[in-house]
Each structure stands twice: as C-alpha cells, then as structure tokens.
Amino acid sequence: MKTMNTEPRERVSGNAFSRRTWLVQMGGGLLFGGSFVAQSAASPPTQQSLARGQDQASTASTSVQQGEVVYPEGAFRSSVLDHRSQWVTDLGVAQPGTSISKESRKGKWRLVNYEARVGASSMKGSMLMCGPETQAPPVSISLKATGWHAIYVGLKTYLGIGESNTIKLKLRSDPCYVLAAVETVRGGVIGEDIGLSGAEAAERLRLRRRQIQDCFYKFADLTDEELQVSALTTGLSEQGAIAYVRLVPLSASEIESLKQDRQKKANRRLACLNDTLTFMHFRRPTTKEEIWEEIYPYKDTDYKAIYWTAARGDNCLYPTKVGTILGADTEDFPRVGDRYLAESNRILISKGIDSVRTSLEFTRRLGMEFHLCMRVESFTAEPPWNGLFRSKFFYDHPELWCVDHDRRTIARLSYAFAESQQHLLKVIRELAEYRPDGVMLIFPRAQPYILYERPVEEAFKKQYGLEPQQVDERDPRLLKIRADFLTDFMRKARREIERVQGAAKPIQLSAMVLANEETNKFHAIDAETWAKEGIIDRLSPSPFSTIRSQADIDIEYFARLTRGTRCQLSPTLRPSWLKLPQVMPLSRSFYDAGAEELIIFDVNLHHQFATEWRLWQLLGRKEELGQLEKQVDFTLSAFEITKLNEIVIDKYPPLWAF
Fold first, then answer.
1. Whole-number Å distance between alpha carbons of 152 and 59
2. 492 in helix, strand or coil?
C-alpha cells in the first residue's frame, strides 16, 4: 500500500457556456493536493478490499479549507485523497454471481479488470460493465460497514463517442433507485497520439477518455445495508460501468452536524419544476418506483416543493375524464422516445397507477409540498409531432383557435372564448381535485393566448368604434382588451380551485410568466392585477421571452408588483441556460430583490451529475451564498485508467484505430 503527497496544481475555473462545454474545458479534473491512501497494485484483484489509511503522520487534514465545496447536508468534502476512505475495488463480489461474466453476455454484467493511478500511487480492481442492450439484472454489493458514512462510486468515463455512463443506485432500505452519471465529453478529442509530453489543455482532454470519476452518492447509516446497482434498462437505455465503492466514515461531530442540518427548515427555499414529459420520454416508467426515482433525490435537501406538470393544455399525463390522455390513440411516432412516453402513460393507467396520485403521495411522504402544473397552450404541434400531441377538444373546435391580424388561424386555443375557458376550467378543477398544495399555470413557451378573435373584435369595436386590425398590434387599448379576457379567466380559475373541498389547507394558485413587463403585456398577462387582487398566491417570472427566445428576468419590476401584497415572488432559473459561475450571483440578486423562494426548471435533468447537483442544492442558503460563491469549486475528482484487462490504454489506445 502506497502513501503519497502531491503538490497542488493549477485550479481550473468553470467558466463555461453549458455543462458539456464546461466539462470539456475542465479537462481531466484530477484532484491534486493533500495525501492519498489507495489500494495498491499488490492487493489481490479477486477479493473484496477495504483499504484503510494507516500512516496517519503522512496524511493531510480533512477539515474544510477555503475553496472547497460544503455539501448541503454535511460539514465536509471528501476526495479520493481522504485517508479515511474505505474501498471496495473488486466488484466481482457482487451478488448474485450468476449475473456476472468475464465475457460479453446478454443478461450479465461484464467483469473487467483495471489498473489506475493518481500521480505515483496506483490501484487495481475489477469493474462491472454493461451495454445499452445487455439487460443486465440488478446486483448487490456487500459494504460490511456500520454507522454513518459518505458514499462515493467510481464511474468510468467514455464508453464510446457520444455515449454516457449512467447507472441506478439504492441502498437496501431505500424505496427506489436514483440515477448516477458521469459528466462526459461528446465528440472527438484531440491529442490521442502525442504521448504524455503534449500541451496541458490537450492532455486534459485526452485524459477524460480514460478516467474513473469519483461521484458522490449520499450520506447514510450503513448498518445492515448493502448497495444495490441497476443498469438503466428502461426507455432509452444506456451503457454503464461502475469501478468501485468508496466509503468515508463520519465523525461524531460530522454526524451531529448532518442531522442538525437536515432538521433545519430555514433554508428550504427551493422547488423543482419537473416537466414530466421528458423523463417519461427517456425512461419509460411503468411502476410506482420508477416514478419515485424523479422525486427521491430531493429527500433531506433544501427543496421544499415539487411542481409536477400533469397537463399540457388538456393533453394529460394521468387518467383524465376531461381532456385527452396524451398518446392514447397514437399508432406511429416521430421519435422512439415519443413512443416510450405514450407506452408509459398507457401501461401505468392499465395497471391502475395514477402517476399524479403516486407522485403526490410519495412527495408528501418525504415531507415536501406538491403542486400540479398546466401548460396553458400545448394543444398540438406541427407535423410530425401532431400525431402525438393532439388534443381532441382542440381539433373538434377549430372555431376556437386564435386568429392573427391577417386573419390566418394560429394553432392556439383562444382564451377569449367562453367555451375555451369553460373547458380549461374543468381541467384545472380536475387537477385541484387531487388536493395538491397548489396549481400552477405555466404561460412561457406557449404564447399567444389571445389575438384578434371574434370576442376581441367585438369588445374593441364596442369601446373604440374601430376594428382592432386598424391599430398597431402594440396599441395599449388593444393590449388592455386582451388582458381583460385573460384576467377574467384567472379570476374564474381562482374561484374554481376554492370550490374544492377536503384539502388540508387552501390550495394555492400560482402563475409562471414571461421575463419582463413589455413581453407580458403584449401577450395579455396583467401580472400586476393578478398580484394586487390576490388572484394568485405566487408569481414566478421566468427567463422565457418571445417565441424561441430568452431574456434576463427584470426582477425589480416583479418585486414592485408583489411588494405589499400577499403574493409570493418566486423567480424561475433554468439550469441549461446558465453558466455555472452565474448561478449563485443570479440567485443572490433575486433574494436581494425580495424573492422568497427559487423555482428551478428541469433541475431533475441534472441531479444525476454529482458536481452540478452540489450547486443546485446550495441555493436555498440565502444568507450564506456570498461566502459559498467564494468557496465553490467543481474540480472533478478522478483516477487515470492505465489498463483494462490486458489492454494498455494510457498511451496509444487501440480504440482510436477504429
């Protein structure tokens, strides 16, 4: 067993344009500094090994230092350099043994020997691999540990160009799995043939193709536990490879800090808005447990609520009696994932599983709020997608479609018609009958809602003696007429929700709106009246602007609208549109303006990535964000793989020949 001290190297900042670009720029991301005790090359490769640090004199302190990430739940960060680490590097011990083979076989994990290194220290082990079509069954890994630990898993990067590595993890006592994935590089990588003397940037890129990333899983009491590992075999299945399990025992003070932090309510200011369609498209859930996988990552975090999108217009992802069950009658699909979405919906309903009901019940089991969302204008799409996204009511009533100034019909259901309003109020009532904590109407990515339809023409002509087509489309008089129709609908929606009996507390009405005053007013959204009249309980401005565009949220404008009202200001952040260094400053600016919570749009697409998920859990710490911004560091902790079975890959890897 080798012990090694290394000097800190250049720290790489995360100034990226997207997660993928950022990770490319990050390169190898090996954590240097401190000291490290790993399983040595002399360790038996066929036995389960728990390597413990012995030479305490040569190891560095594990206390939090400036520049380190503080996990949301605990008081420390551990890297592969942590001398306390206990390693399970031979995953051939996984059970049942009949599910493992040293050769590529359908229905079995492949056991692949590996050698890896950090600097001059080396380790050996055996990883489990599977392909997207292997259909490898779940296996269990005995941890032989008691008490509280931090759990990390080693995931191999680069299983093929453009191919990620995603697996599912759970402890024996967990009700469901959660996803874990590497943050991988897509596309070609330069520098494969320049040896180890190439430029540092090229070398970082080259290293990313032969790494084992050290990915944080969770904190847990491991007494009587085992780690269960599953391949991602449903929906758009993916390849997977897990190389080791690393356990770090927690001290008494760390355990106490962890427990106190989890009991704290003051930082619970975050909410996840789950668009639902996306995970059904990719993962084809057909059981309650597979639905719960979308919710369980928020347990013991600062997320206080799940916003669950159950209806797109009246295209519903539950057994509706009012609208259209999404994909119920579709036979041909434009994308494979669209078929998975429809099949998921059909199978769940055929099993008697209401995805909304089970999501609500499970979220409340975790002590969180559950809000149901309706996208207000998702009734159809252009070909080829209109075979799947096809509201029966919408196509049965073309006379209720929006009409533009040039008399062309627009594929939106106009909220100016009483018939449209009555139908959609029934959908809202159906959602409220689930007794959620709230119902949110999502206006972004859906406009227009009202244009030049007959009721608008009649109202404008009655009041001004003109046809609305005779004035500019931004004429304040025309915009006011339109806004009155939509505000009338919002008042009715409020009354409809209030009529629902049997809820533990009043059901809230929330509205997600567009980014600024001008865009909202042009599209008939009178957020000021909604807030001041108490029509809505929560106003969530979003970075969505006009069609296919984004814009900075004018947070000061929305703060003025909600100030002095009972309407809560809850701005929306969208992870895929933000550079990571922008996230904390933006969040602080929202809090400074008076925001009471942050709603994170589609953050469920990011919590399998350990480095990103750290960031999105920290944002509830309003008073600490300024300091955390100085400390946060998303350097990836990883080993360099030098050999897989008999194949040397650290120089001149043979795959490049293909």
1. 20
2. helix
